Amino acid sequence: MNATAGNYSQVELDKFDELAQRWWDPDGPQKALHALNPARLGYVAERVALRGARVLDVGCGGGLLSEALAKSGAQVTAIDLAPNLLKVARLHGLESGAKVEYRQAAVEALADEAPASFDAVTCMEMLEHVPDPAAIVRACATLLKPGGRLFLSTLNRTPAAFALAIFGAEYVARLLPKGTHQYRDFIKPSELARLLRDTGLALEDVSGLMYEPWRNRARIVRRTDVNYLACARKPE
Predict the structure, then answer these.
(1) pTM listed for this prediction
(2) Are 1 and 81 in contact (CB under 8 A)?
(3) Mean per-residue pLDDT for 98-109?
(4) Residues 198, 199, 202, 203: what is their CA dihedral angle, to the nearest 10 degrees?
(5) Pairing of strands 227-233, 144-155
(6) Which residues contact 167 (CB under 8 A, 6 or more apart)?
(7) Quick one: which of 57, 143, 39, 50 has its CA closest to 93?
(8) For residues 32 and 175, what is the distance between their CA atoms, to the nearest angstrom?
(9) At a CB cut-off of 8 Å and minimum separation 6, what does 30 contact?
(10) If you ran DSSP here, which 8-state letter would residue 8 be given?
C-alpha cells in the first residue's frame, strides 16, 4: 500500500471497507451517494470536455463516479486505499463494461510518480475523512496538467450541516451509517479556497449540492451551507 506519510485513518478505511459489498446497491448504505452522482458528473462535464480527457478519481470508493466518467468518454484512473472497495469496483467494472484503471495508491505517491499527467482530477467526499486535507489538495494540483481542473466536494462546517448531514442523515433518517462523519472535520469554503490558493490553483466556482431525500435526487444550488462542490484551475 503506497500510503505517503500516513495521510489516512485506518478507522476510516475499515469503515468504508465494511460497506464494500453493498456499495452498488442503490437502496443500500450508499443510497445518498447514488443520488449525488449524476449531479457530481454533470458539474464536471459542464467544465471539462470529458471525451478523450485523462481524468483521475481520488478516493474512488467502489467506483460510482469513476464509471460515470468513463462512460462519458474519459480515460479514467481511479485510486483508493481501501482494498475491499477496489475489489468491488473492479468486479463491477467487469459487469458493466466500464473501462477504469483502478489502483491501490495514495494520491501523494502518485503525484511523485506522475506529475502533470491529468486534464482533470476529482476528489469527492474525501477531504473530510483524512488527517491532512492540504496534502491531498497539493498532490491533486501536482497531478494536473497546466490548464487542468480540480473538482472537490465536501461538507461545510455549519450548524445546518451538523443538523442535516450528521443528526438527520445518520441518526434520524438513517440514510448513512452512524459515525460516517465527524463535524470537526468539515471544511468551510473559505478554508478550502485558502488551500487552493496556497497550491497555486485559481478557484473558479463554488456551488451547493443539495440532496432531496423525498425524491432521492440531488441538484446543484447556490446555497453552500451543507454539501458543496468547488472547481479550481491550474494556470497555463
Answers:
(1) 0.89
(2) yes
(3) 97
(4) -70
(5) antiparallel
(6) none
(7) 57
(8) 7
(9) 19, 22, 23, 24, 62, 64
(10) S
Which three cell numbers mark 195?
Answer: 488551500
Cell of 52: 478523450
DSSP state, residue 184: G
Q: Closest by alpha carbon to 175, among 134, 142, 147, 216?
A: 216
d(CA 146, CA 205): 18
Question: How far apart (Å, rounded) are the C-alpha atoms in residues 192 and 195?
Answer: 5
Does 194 score more than 60 pLDDT? Answer: yes
Q: How far is CA 24 from CA 29, 86, 95, 232, in A?
A: 9, 12, 12, 29
Altogether, the residues listed in the chain come to a count of 236
Residue 69's CB is within 10 A of a number of other CB atoms, namely: 29
H helices, E strands: number in the chain? 8, 8
Strands 100-104 and 202-212, by their bridges, are unpaired
- For residues 62 and 23, what is the distance between their CA atoms, to the nearest angstrom? 6
